[in-house]
C-alpha cells in the first residue's frame, strides 16, 4: 500500500522554518507526531543553501531513531532547488519528504528515483524514506489526485489552498463567512478521495489563524468525521488541539467495540438491528477502522 511495506499514521504535522535552529528545536521538543522542516515557502531564495546545511546538521545531531518523525519539505520539482535539497538532507536520514506542487504520479516516480540513488549512495536502506504529497497546489494537479494508487513511498496526501488561489488567478479563496470557496472545498474533497483510492492517509491543510484554537478544533473535528486522519499545523500552539481532535474518545471506541462484538456474535448476519437503527457491513468496517486508529484493533 505504501511502497514501503508498512502502514503509517500521524495526526499532527507541524511546519518549522529550515532557516531557524531555534524554531526547529522548539518544534522537535513538542508533541507533534511529525515535524516538517521547511525549505520551500518559509525560506527566502538566497537563504536556501544555508538552510539546507542547517537542516542536515540538525538531523545529524539527533539519534537515528528520533528522526522518523523529522521530515523535510523540499522545493518543487519544476524549480532549480529540488536535487540540491535532497542531496543535502537525505544523507542525514529524515523520516520523510514532503513534495509540494506535485502535478501527478509522474512527479512522485521521479522523486523516488532521486531518493533511491541518494539512499544507496549514503548507505541507507533503499525505499525507507517516506513521502507525503501536496496534491492540489496547481490547477493541473486538481485533475490527477486519483493517480497515486501504488505510487512508491507515498504514505499520505495533503492539499493546499493558497498556491491554488494563485494558480487560478483568484483574489481570495474564502467566502465572506470565512469558509473556503467552492474550488477549494473541491480540492479538499479530491484530496480525500485520492487518498482513499491510494489507500494512504488524508491530511487536511493548515489553518492560518493560529490564535483561533476554538475554530481549529471545530474544523479538525469536522474533517475527521469526513475521513481525514490528520492536519498540518503552522504553530506549536495548534498541535495539542489537532492531536486531541484526531484521537478517538473513549465513548467512540466503546461504541465501535459494541458494533464489532455484535457482528462477532452474529457471524452470518448481513444486517443487525442496534439501538433503533439497522447496521450493515459498512458500519462494521468503520467501527474496525476507528478501533485501529485508537490502537485497539
UniProtKB/TrEMBL annotation:
Keyword Lyase: yes
HpcH/HpaI aldolase/citrate lyase domain sequence ranges: 11-236
Keywords for this protein: Lyase, Magnesium, Metal-binding
Cofactor: Mg(2+)
One GO MF term: lyase activity
Protein known as: HpcH/HpaI aldolase/citrate lyase family protein
Lineage: Bacteria, Bacillati, Actinomycetota, Actinomycetes, Streptosporangiales
